């Protein structure tokens, strides 16, 4: 069968389709191949196949950006300033209220093991967790009555400055000389308590005291300004060990777009709230000062008091993000988020809030609960529900990035495709990290990222409860309440059955409900599992996964009216309000469930 020569003409040579310059130039410059028309047709066919593949690739991958990026100008490089030095900075290490002043506490910073203790002068001290004698952990030691830290291995003692005060094995003739030897000292770091948080300097050494005195910790000035004492209020401090690293933690908090989707049913509605976000830099990025940007939601109808606020996200190295919502009245609410780099793949979240009233005492609309006298432990026990909505992504994200790097040698630039303006904060954060050589881990740190299973991922007891004095007290109280409810319910039920008394049986049922609710509350001190697919376990409880409406049983031959009532509800419900949020927590704790609709007859 004869084929027309036009069938082999490259598609880009047809009318109205412009050939790529390289292909057109190659075709014009190539001489006629030996072998006559058959060879010419073969060349045309090969060109057509190549052009088709290129066009399909372009459609699939979108516009391609050349990998050969133009080199950064000296002016651009200079605008970032000197590199940030991780060791020469203040880090929040612990909430003082939850530290035990009768014993040393082991903590970790930048992969370096530290020990925190309170000396005889009432000062909190931070040493590197190593006895200079035989390199055993000082965190296994004891705080003695004379205010020294005793190493439990050989009995050496140290004062608050790290100087050895006792070496039991030393002869009297040489003891004084040995105690004065610098090698007998523990490695002490500068430390200070500000606003209820213990801050520690990033290194020890002869110059650490002087260098640390020249810098201030990253704290909002309003909270220590006497002129603002009637307007500025700090919330309770919370802390938690998070199963993901510094890099993805700060990617998450510089990403305003995820909130509308990931935090569905708590602060947003994933079906209605996502929209384009405009990002404008308020403070240009620099290595030492970080950066700040303002976010504006585009193409969104005003639906809540929050829409009046101007939100600014302020990254302050080495580990703080301040997210401030400023309202027309001059009132503002700021989230103070510190992700402390403990070891590769893990961080310690130390966070609080700051409320600033307007000049006339105005507070942000919808924040009446902020001043509610809620116990500290309750704030802590409810926190993981919000945090775990992110944790299920971030822990696995860092592992996927690590696998991509090992498998293909990919950097974040190749693993991510971040084309929207909403991603500007994440891109800038990654650029800042690249310019400063990544997180400044100690040379002793194990840089292998550990993979955590779901049971460990949601372990609230190890990540927080066992470290929090308020939550430990609340857990003991909850245990007692739960036992009281259970035993009282059994007693009432038994008495009611014996006497045939309906009031006693009803009382037993009520006490049983209390036992059930307190058991659920108790469980939240140990674990708060979360899966986005399960939508707060709504389906397991027999409720629609989107609207938390009761599921309706199907019938074999429903009438027309019943069929209409059983049509699926569109997945775009109203944005959660204060009342629906309260209902959510009631359901979470088992206090109540939505009333089922009338049964279909």
TrEMBL record:
GO terms under cellular component: chloroplast; membrane
Keywords: 2Fe-2S, Chloroplast, Iron, Iron-sulfur, Membrane, Metal-binding, Oxidoreductase, Plastid, Transit peptide, Transmembrane, Transmembrane helix
Stretches that traverse the bilayer: none
Domain of life per record: Eukaryota
Comp. bias (Basic and acidic residues): 59-72, 296-306
Keyword Membrane belongs to the record: yes
Domain Rieske: 90-200
One MF term in the entry's GO annotations: metal ion binding
Location(s), subcellular: Membrane; Plastid, Chloroplast
Annotated region (Disordered), positions in chain: 55-79, 295-314, 537-601
Compositionally biased spans, kind Low complexity: 575-584
Protein name: Rieske domain-containing protein
Organism listed in the record: Effrenium voratum
């Amino acid at each position: 069968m004869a084929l027309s020569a036009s069938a082999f003409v490259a598609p880009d040579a047809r009318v109205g389709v412009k050939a790529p310059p390289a292909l057109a130039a190659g075709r014009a410059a190539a001489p006629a191949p030996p072998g006559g028309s058959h060879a010419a047709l073969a060349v045309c066919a090969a060109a057509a196949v190549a052009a088709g593949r290129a066009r399909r690739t372009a459609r699939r991958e979108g516009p391609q950006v050349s990998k050969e990026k133009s080199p950064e100008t000296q002016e651009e490089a200079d605008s970032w300033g000197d590199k940030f030095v991780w060791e020469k900075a203040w880090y929040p290490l612990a909430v003082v209220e939850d530290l035990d002043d009768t014993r040393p506490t082991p903590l970790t910073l930048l992969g370096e093991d530290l020990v925190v203790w309170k000396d005889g002068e009432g000062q909190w001290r931070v040493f590197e967790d190593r006895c200079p004698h035989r390199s055993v952990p000082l965190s296994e030691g004891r705080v003695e009555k004379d205010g020294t830290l005793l190493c439990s291995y050989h009995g050496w003692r140290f004062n608050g400055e790290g100087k050895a005060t006792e070496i039991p094995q030393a002869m009297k003739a040489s003891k004084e000389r040995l105690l004065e030897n610098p090698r007998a000292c523990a490695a002490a770091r500068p430390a200070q308590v500000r606003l209820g948080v213990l801050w520690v300097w990033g290194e020890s050494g002869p110059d650490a005291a002087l260098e640390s005195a020249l810098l201030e910790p990253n704290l909002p000035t309003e909270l220590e300004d006497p002129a603002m004492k009637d307007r500025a209020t700090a919330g309770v401090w919370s802390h938690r060990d998070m199963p993901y690293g510094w890099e993805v933690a700060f990617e998450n908090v510089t990403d305003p777009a995820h909130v509308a989707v990931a935090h569905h049913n708590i602060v947003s509605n994933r079906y209605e709230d996502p929209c384009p976000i405009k990002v404008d830099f308020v403070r240009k990025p620099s290595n030492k000062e970080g950066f700040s940007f303002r976010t504006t939601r585009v193409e969104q109808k005003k639906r809540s008091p929050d829409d009046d606020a101007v939100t600014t996200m302020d990254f302050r190295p080495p580990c703080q993000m301040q997210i401030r919502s400023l309202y027309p009245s001059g009132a503002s609410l700021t989230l103070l988020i510190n992700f402390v780099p403990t070891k590769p793949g893990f961080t310690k979240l130390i966070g609080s809030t700051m409320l600033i009233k307007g000049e006339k005492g105005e507070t942000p609309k919808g924040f009446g609960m902020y001043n509610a006298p809620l116990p500290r432990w309750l704030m802590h026990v409810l926190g993981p529900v919000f945090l775990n909505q992110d944790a299920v992504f971030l822990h696995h994200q860092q592992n996927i990035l690590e696998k991509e790097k090992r498998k293909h040698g990919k950097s974040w630039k190749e693993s991510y495709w971040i084309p929207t303006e909403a991603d500007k904060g994440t891109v800038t954060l990654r650029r800042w990290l690249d310019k400063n050589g990544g997180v400044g881990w100690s040379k002793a740190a194990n840089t292998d990222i550990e993979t955590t299973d779901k049971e460990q991922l949601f372990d609230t007891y190890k990540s927080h409860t066992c470290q929090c004095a308020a939550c430990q007290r609340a857990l003991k109280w909850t245990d007692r309440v739960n036992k009281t409810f259970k035993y009282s319910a059994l007693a009432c039920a038994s008495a009611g059955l014996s006497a045939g008394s309906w009031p006693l049986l009803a009382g037993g049922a009520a006490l049983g409900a209390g036992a059930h609710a307190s058991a659920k509350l108790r469980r939240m001190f140990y674990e708060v599992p979360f899966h986005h697919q399960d939508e707060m376990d709504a389906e397991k409880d027999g409720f629609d996964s989107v609207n938390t409406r009761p599921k309706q049983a199907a019938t074999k031959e429903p009438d027309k009216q019943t069929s209409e009532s059983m049509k699926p509800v569109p997945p775009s419900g109203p944005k959660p309000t204060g009342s629906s949020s309260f209902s959510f927590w009631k359901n979470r704790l088992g206090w109540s469930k939505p009333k089922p609709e009338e049964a279909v007859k």
